[in-house]
Fold:
Amino acid sequence: MRKITYASLLVAFICVFTACKDDDVISPITPAETTSDVTTTSSYSSINNWAYGVMQDAYYWSAELTAISNLDLSLDPFDFFEKLIYNRETIDRFSGLTDDYEALQNDFDGISEIFGIRYTTAYLDNSSTNLGLFLSQVTVGSAAEAAGMKRGDVIISIDNQSITASNFASLFSSSDTHTFSFGKLENDTWLTESSLTVTRMVTEENPVAYSGIIELPVSGKKLGYLLYTQFIPGSSDEYDNQLRSIFGEFKSNQVSELVLDFRFNGGGYISSAEVLSSLIGINTSSNDIFYKEKWNESYESYLRSRYGSSYFDHTFLDEANNIGNQLSRVFVLTSNSTASASELVINGLTPYMEVITIGENTYGKNLFGTLVGDDENNSNYGIYVMLGETTNALDQSGYGTVDGITPDYYVEDNLIPYLPIGDYNETLFSQVLEVLGEKTLASARLSNKKTIWRKNKFYAKEEQVQPMAKTIITLPKAGE
Structure:
């Protein structure tokens, strides 16, 4: 075995419409002082040999690799790498090759310039010509938030140009500064209400987009609500400690119901998933298994012989602000963007309490991986390689497919403009209230407000919030 320091990641690549980016809060990585741009055909064989070695060594499905003698090492590295992937369409949808390691590492670490908006597109009228951007989330700490943008806003033009399917991508890519005009629907006509000029900026996002205690409309009981957009500890565990503080408030206020809103959460650090789950689990402690790991046969054998079988078992933490004894269940709101560490929390809590999922099928990633740079050739290539699979304490891990986790209550988040998070009539929260028998006082939204059904069934985003889960693991040299 080669010695490589791996940072295990639990992150899903869910690129929709535009480039994926991560909003994280890690200090920027300083690029290597000397790297060579290895792009010539004569260099391909060395890159491909390196890539094959990494995959043969660490890839979860290394046993399925085609023998290197049967592969063409002169291929473009991207074409070569695809020949190493095990069932790209259905199983390994995540491993990938990059020729800009530093850029991808910075993306994983959340170093990116963004406006800070997440939105759905839909036509503004029956002519199916002009599009609106219906804001579903504004990133905490972003330029958009600083300018005053909020969930529910509708952008009807960019730089005084109407938005269409043909100019949409070019409008965003043409500049780092744009003037966004916001519309208001009056008598079936969209009128410009206001405009804001916003410049992309490097953003360190606080993953706690919303937290609050909501009094239920019928029983008067208290419900804790957490909109959490990525699993990230922050500098000096700032955001993990914020979670602890929030749950301290939930605990002291005798919250008896809990909603975890993961609809925008594409994954994150496993350590933060452990913190959050440990604040929730009923009768859980450091003696109880949160999740287990499975590696390829070589590493399974090595790690078991060196550290014992317990190496693969990861337990809950002993958290002073755990509210499990106040709960009988937890509600989790999901979408197709709910992935990786979010799914790990759902799966990991299931053996210990009732987990009720509401929304759409999750993305379906029960794998952990790492980003490996090409030190052998001093090139800027890198591989995001899947190292293994996670299961819960009952050895359950059946969501690693394109179908993901099927929600208990399938509800499409398809009513726009979006209502504020925590509003009784907000699409997914309304279903929570219905399950709780608390919907009596929640008025029917369609009866008093013009509602537009989403016509484009995708989440078009300015950026994708998909952080990673990291556990630093040093793999052994041959003979160790």
User: Anything to note?
Assistant: The CA atoms of residues 10 and 249 lie 29 Å apart. The first strand starts at residue 5 and ends at 7. The domain at 123-202 is CATH 2.30.42.10 (Pdz3 Domain). DSSP finds ten helices and 23 strands in the chain.
